[in-house]
Amino acid sequence: MSSVISSASPTHPARQCLRWSLTATLLCLAGGACSAAELASLRLGYDGVGKVGKWLPITAEARDLPAGERVQLRAGFSDPRGDRCIQIVDEVEVGDDGSAVLTGCFRCGRMEGVGTVSLHVKGTPGEEILTTTIVHAEDVKQPSPIGPVQRTLRLNKAGILTLMTVGEVAGIQELLRNASFYSTAQSLLQGVHVASLQQLPDVGVAYESIDYLLLTDQFAMSPAQTSAIQEWVRVGGNLLVSAGNSVVELNRTDLGAWLSPIFGVGQEPILTRDLTSLQGYVQGASRLENNRQSVPMAVLQRGQTYPEVDSLSGLIIGRQSVGTGVVTFIAVDLNQRPVNRWPSLPQLYETLILGEKLTRRSGKASRNLRISQSGVSDVATQLMAAVDATSDARRWSTWGVMGIIVAWLLLIGPIDYLLVTRLLKRPHFTWITFPSLIIGGGAVVYAFAPDSLLLQLNQWHVVDVISEDGQSHVTARSWMSVSSPHTMRSDLKAVPSLFGDTSSTPSTRLTWAGRPEDVYGGMYRTGGIALGRQSYTHEGFDGGRLTGVPFLTNGSRSLYAEWNSESDSLINTQLSVSGFGLLTGTFSHNLPFTISDWVLVYGNRVYRTRGNTSGTTQLSPGDVWNSNSPDIFAFDLKTWLNGSRIVRADDGKRSSNRGTTQVNTPYDK
C-alpha cells in the first residue's frame, strides 16, 4: 500500500463556530429564491446508536428538490484531531417528482460534539439545498420513538459489544436487561434491532459497529445483503444462525448456499428428544422441558466444525471460523418450543456471546477501570504510537533549549546592563541595544534551527488471505502516518498492491485514524468549541481519496486504508485437526514473493520450522510445509508471545533443569 501526496499549498487556519441548534435550517439557493426543499426522513446508525470511530449507515429522503439535478449527501463530523471531515456519502439524480433517497456510510471521530448532514447540488460549490445539525455524545438521551428526522446520535466506546437482531427473538429483551443490571461503570452489551431483513445494509462496511448478528426464522435476503454479511464475517464479525425446522427455508437462500458447505448442513431436519446437553451447557440452568415431544433439529455433518454443544443425535451448537470471524450455527429454533419458553434462554445467549453467565462479579471483572488513563491501554493506541511519523529534522534537546533561554536572559539582562552602564557609560543606549539583541538572537536561532525538506511516511500493513471454494479473498489494512516539513494542504490517495490475478482493481477506503483513548488525537475527547479548526473532504465512503487535508509544520497525521479483492487461490491448504487438537496436513502458498520469519498458529499452539543459520525461516512459493516433517516443532502460544524459549545449557555446566534453561528475548520494535 502506498500513498501519493500532491497539490501542496500554504494555508492559514480559518476560525469556525459550531452551531448547537437542533432545528433544520433551510438555506437559499444562489439565485436568491429560497428553496422549499425539506428532509422527509433521516436515519443515522442503528436505532440512533453507533460506535465512535466506526462506519455507520445513513439514509436520507428529501422532497421538493430541483428535478433532474444531481445532488450529494454530505456528512460533516470532527476527526480525532478536531478538524472537520466532510464526507461525500452518496450522489443521485433527482427524479421528476423532486424526491431522492440517498444512502451510504459515514464516520464520527469524536465521542461528543456536533456534526451536520446536508444536501448539495453537484458542480456548484458552496450551494447547499438544506442542512441539519446532529448532536452526538455518549450519554445523549434518545426520544422513544425517534422522529422522522433524527437529530441526535448516541455513540458507544469501542469496548462495548453490540448485538443486532432481526424481528422478534425470544429471550433477547431479558438478556439486555440482565446486561444493564450487571453493568457497573459502563455497559456490557448494547442491543440494536431491525424489523425485517429488508432493512439490513447491503454493504459490508456498514456492519463495522456490529459485533454480533443473530438471525432466526428469516433468511431470505438479497444477494448484495448476503455478500455484505460474508465480507463482515471475513474481517472479524460474529454471525449466529438458528435453524431447526426452518433449515429447509435456509437452504433455499443465498445465505444457506454459503453456510451449507461450511457446516455440512442437511437438506431436511431430524427429530430429537435429547436436549440435556444444551441444558448442561449453561451453568445452573433450569430444566429444558420438552414434555417428551420430538424437537426438529438441523443436521451438521462437517467433521471440522467445533462442537460447542454435542448430543447423541448430533451437533446442537457448532462453531466455524471464517476468515478472522466466527459463525455459530444453532441447530434448533430459538423462537419455537421448547427453547423459546426456556427460562435459561437469556443465560444461553450470555454464554454464547460473553463467554460466561452474567453475575455481579463477572460484570465488575469485565469492566475493571483504572482511576486515570495512561493513554496506552489499547493495542490500537500502541500500534499507532509505533507508526507515528516524526520529521527527519534533528530536533534540539530539552536541555539545549533551556540553555539557550538562560543564555538569552543573561544577554539581554546583566550583560546588556554592564555594556551600556559600565563600558559605554550611556544607559539610554539600552533603547537601541535591547531590541537589537532580541532581533539578532531570534535571527541566529532561526538560522541554525533544524529543518526538513522531505515528507516522512511510515506504513504498517496487515494482509488477510482467506481461502474459500478455490478462491482467495484478500483483505488488506494499512496504518499510515505522514509528517510534513511545511504547513500546507495536500490531496492523499491510497493505491492497493494486488496479489495474483484479479478481474478488476478493488476500491480503497482511505480515511483518518484515531486512538480509542482520551489523549490528543483520541476519539474519546470532547469536541469543545473547535476554534481555528479546518475542513477537508473525503470523497465517498468507498473511495480512496482525501482532498485538502491540512498539515502543520513537522506535525504528523494518522491515516487508515483498507481494500478487498478476490483472486485465484493464493493458499493451498490441506490442514485438519486431529483428535488430540493438533494441526496435521500440508500448507503452501502462491504469493509472488518469499515469506520469511513466519509461524503457523492454531488454538493455543504455535507450529514453527527450524530456522537456518541466521535463525530465520523462509517459505518460497510452491514449497510445501508438512506437519509430519522432523523439522517442525510446536510449543505454547503464550510462551512464544512472551519471547520465552528453552535452550540447551552449555556443555560442562550443571543445572537443576536437566541441561536446559529458559531464555527471554525482548521484542525488537
Explained architecture:
The radius of gyration is 30 Å and the shape is globular. Helix 1 packs across helix 6 and helix 9 (398-423) packs antiparallel against helix 10. The model is unreliable at 1-35, 365-375 and 652-657 (pLDDT under 50). The strands form 10 sheets. Strands 1, 2, 4, 6, 7, 9, 10, 11, 23, 25 and 26 form an 11-stranded mixed beta sheet that branches. The protein has a 7-stranded mixed beta sheet with strand order 13-12-14-15-20-19-18. With 669 residues, the protein is α+β, with helices and mostly antiparallel strands. A hairpin with a 6-residue loop joins strand 25 (535-538) and strand 26 (545-551). It starts with a strand and ends in a 5-residue tail after the last strand.
Our Rg estimate from Cα atoms comes to 30 Å
The largest sheet, given as strand count, sense and whether it forms a barrel, is: 11 strands, mixed
For the termini, the CA-CA separation is: 21 Å
Global shape: globular
The number of helical runs is: 11
Low-confidence stretches: 1-35, 365-375, 652-657
Strand content: 25-35%
Number of strands: 39
Helix proportion range: 10-25%
> What's the pLDDT, averaged over the residues?
82
Computed structural class? alpha+beta
